[in-house]
Specification:
272 residues, alpha/beta, TIM Barrel, eight-stranded parallel beta barrel, 14% strand, globular, binds 3-methyl-2-oxobutanoic acid
Length: 272
Amino acid sequence: MSTHTKSSRKTILDIKKMKELGEKITVLTAYDYAISSILDECGIDMILVGDSLGMVVLGYDTTLPVTMEDMLHHTKAVSRAAQNSLVIADMPFLSYQVSPQSALANAGRFLQEAGAQAVKLEGGRDTAETVRKITSAGIPVMAHIGLTPQSIHQIGGFKVQGKKEDAALRIIEDAKILEDAGAFSIVLELVPEKLAEEITKSINIPTIGIGGGIHCDGQVLVINDMLGLYDKFTPKHVKKYANLNPEIKKAIKSYITEVKNCSFPDAEHSFK
Ligand code: KIV
């Protein structure tokens, strides 16, 4: 039997190499088969099944109510579509904080049952033992520091982190500790551009910014935000590459009008 697998899928080695080569890394979130197919066809490097699922798909105010079962369900759909992009599953609140052992068991489910190639978890030095445990079992881990939404009640709101010197130093140390623990990359969320630059220069694994400025090795955005699906509020770090909310509303209103006035379905869309 051949030991070669024919796959064009990005691996964590490709992602690390991109930092060495100075090639920017692209990441977007996806929560279902349709969007995952589009991202994969467009050549996105990594797809994150973020626990932002809770807010943008499931309608919660925070990510805290998201469960392992929610994340597994959506990761399975995303994985079925992604042929080339590396799929990362976000570990939900309390799936990795209780003990390194239970964290490993939960992380394993994302690879074994849901087809992901890596997991992401939030937190600095306090999660280092868990990151070591999971990576030692052969499961790649993306770390996540700066603003960590699962700690929103402790942080006291969605605000920029590491503005004061002592806080900034602590975040730089956290990044080094997480690299040492085996993380293959680190998300830097809502940190000043200069701090993100310093972290990016002081570690060998890629930094992926969201509200972290231009010097990160890569960027991630929540797909619903960058497509303009939500029309109430746009955070400063989000660039809307499309404005789909009014487009969708326009289409739906046309449909309503045409059904009401009997112009749909017409002959073209009916069977003889
Ligand atoms: O849940 C998520 O989508 C994330 C990204 C914002 C990094 O963690």
